[in-house]
Amino acid sequence: MIEGSSVLFFAPPPWVREQVVPLFIRKQIPTLVTQSHEGIKQCAEVFPGSIFFCNLDAGVPADEWLRIIGGLAGHLKTRDVALGLCTKAEAGIIASALKPYDLPHRVVDSQRSPQVVLSQMGETLKAFYKPGRRKHLRVNCTDQTRAGYNIKTDGSVRTGRIYDISVAGMACAFDPGHHIHLEQNQRLPGIQLNLGNRLALVDGIVAGMRKTDTATVYVVLFQHSTDTTAQHKILDFISREMQSQFERKVLQGSRPMLGLG
Questions:
Q1: In angstroms, rounded to a whole number, what is the distance separating the alpha carbons of residues 19 and 112?
Q2: Does the model's pTM come out above 0.85?
């Protein structure tokens, strides 16, 4: 489960998903999207302390949005959820409608330019965002993901599975038949990451290891000296995988396997 605030967009316009979500991810802010107005209560349960940006101009009429929010006000307050309400309606009208519920919120004027909208979203983050204790976004890699890596050593290529990953490093283990023993602080130049069929090249160093019943799991810290685009590729993968897990698990009623590392 994610620690600290997450940002969830409900029914955003396409440009928000295409431009704002990657921007927030690069700032190490966990950011997810649902195209529906449904699931607010469930998301508040899974992501307490978070910010929900609701597009009041999409999905259902604005007054229906406000009715839904008002009906969930007690639950949203209990779960410490703040709202960013994106709408063409006047801020005063929205504030009056929400006044009986005393919900923390900001109004984002969706009629303004994307630059102004983004600035207003940024002000909402400044007011309500609470970072977790860890610095980097991390995602646990599921069986469906099949995220892996390979390294070349002693003239042969060794492959393995990634268990979790952030821009700082990864937990990983070699595939059966490919295992070699790595030493603490051993440098690993030219690690090729396979991140959902996208490749990234990094250098790494072994920071630790632990044995399980089936494998030795290594913690490898990245140095990013080989490929300057590696961090963006890793973050793009984290964003896609977080979103996929969110859609498979949270929207279907179970908790996600998301985290910070």
A1: 16
A2: yes
